[in-house]
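hey so i finally got around to running both of the ones u sent me last week. sorry it took forever, my laptop kept dying halfway thru and i had to restart like 3 times lol. anyway pasting them below in the order u listed, first the sequence line then the structure token line for each. didnt double check formatting much so if smth looks off just lmk and ill redo it

first one:
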Amino acid sequence: MDSVSSKVKSCAGGCASTDESWEQYKSDFKKVYVSDDEETERYGLFKASLERIAKGNALGNNVYGLTWSSDRRPEEKHAKGLKKRPGFVPTAPLYEKKYERRSPESINWRTTDAVTPIKNQGQCGSCWAFSATSAIESQLALSGGDGFSIELSPQQITSCTPSTGTYGSDGCNGGFTEGAYEYVKSAPGLTNSFNIGYEQSLTASSTTVACNTFKTKIDGMAGADAELSGGYAQVTGYTYATPACTSGACANQDLDKLKAALEETPVSVCVNAASWNDYTGGVMTSAQCGSMAADEQDHCVMATGFNATGGYWIVRNSWASGWGEMGYIYLELDENTCGLADDATIPTVSLNLSPEQQLRAEHSRQRMYAQAVGAGINVV
């Protein structure tokens, strides 16, 4: 390509070759392109991102900014993956509180053993499996004590949840948390992440790893070598923190019930994450996130608490710790922001604890609660 035609292409959507912000972006995010044609396309996407970021910040707080995905096509950005079966009807009961309402000003289970480190679903649409796995991890730790705080396997759920029936899901092509719980109910259990690690690509789309790959390991949880398999969780069911909203605008969800549930446990939630790829930090308002309607939900994550003074829900994502607030996002508290209360679930785990173990587990739970609310007290 001669120098004249090269300059024409680089200036097709504004002049990339003389745009200092573009040069800075490429330097900040270590961007290298294989051709002038590709750089021209990427520059156009970058310019569109700048316009979208400015419009989004004008709706509320300055929560949007340039990220590694600002020059990416939609299918190249962080994967999501919520996909429910057509006509799905929620039948699970509402969560019943186990303790007297204490109404703390803030609570954040993230600071406790009830929440494991941030995970990364990569370019697989397995958010639903990660959300369910995180919720099961939390219930395991809160029900059994901090000794049961282990990382479980989202790969097992991604690969092994059936693709047919009422709760059918489709691996990296999408699924939903209720389907994940129903699968684990039918399995010997959900194994730990050392036994079955995550095998989907973190940088490119990949075919869902076949469940048969892990059959021996899954069967081993119920066999004579179960102890050698390490920790795992058995799920007996799940409840809704608030009545689920499966159609319409979902503008009147019971946020107080969600707060009440979060006083006792982290909660799996599904959201409209259409604007989340541009999020860099701060409190995203409901206006900035957009629709809270059931039909707009496309991603499942986990609420780990709230801060009434700051006015936000605390939500854990599965897009690695480099995204947002070290892997988390803060959403406006007084609204059903992003529809986070549309589909809020809490799994139930089964543990065969002795009376002595139950007492230790309760002490552990109370210590975690004190830590989550920042009480600074020593519960023994």
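and the second one:
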Amino acid sequence: MITKDLFSLKGRVALITGGSRGIGKMIAEGFIAQGAKVYISARKADACNQTAKELSEGGGTCVSIPMNVATVAGAKGLATAVMALEPKVDILVNNAGAAWGAAFDEFPEEGWDKVLNLNAKTPFFLTQALAPALRKAATAARPAKVINIASIDGIYLTNRETYSYVTSKAGLIQLTRLMAARLVKDNIYVTAIAPGAFKSDMNRDARDHADEVAKRIPARRVGTAEDMAGAAIFLASRAGDYVIGSTVTVDGGVAFATPAMRDLQLEE
């Protein structure tokens, strides 16, 4: 018999990095709606505090822990701060990220280091630091979950010159597989989401030119908060307990559309 609480997160504790805006905020709002207690972290304290206040107004619980997780020290500091409040953490969403665009002949070392550190290095070391709390929460009947936010740019070839970004996201997808293989024995299930076009400060094209961007998407629209929250809730809840190591694309069909399909979409 299928439980009526298949997508419920009631009684679960979640930590979401980069949770003050964009995709992180979408996921936080969705988790809270399903009954989770959510901690969000972001580099800018004011924005993080304001989002936590906003998301708590509907009766849910959202707690702000501002932290710069771009360094290993910052990632460990966040884990320590959360574990001081919660001995068990059911869900970790590694969402904090950065992008950098520059022409091939001008692309700087700084653009590699900043992006690779935050997008690929931080998810590993934050998960490592938070592992004691994840292990305490995890059981065979209710595994703990780690969800890495990758990108379709790590799957298909973009025409944008974001060399370090695509490298970091492709690497994060492979890292997800390896972490999943290692942590499954601890009943910690690791997966990833590869978003397409969602309105955010990082994806300004989708935010500012949604109608134009939509023409290049088979679904004919950019993603909404419900689209992102729905995918994350699925993976975090009982509904996603048989998904391990996979990357779920949430992109309106872009990553796996054939060139012919894209051409037909543009011609219509």
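quick thing i noticed on the 2nd:
The chain has a mean pLDDT of 91.
anyway thats it, ttyl
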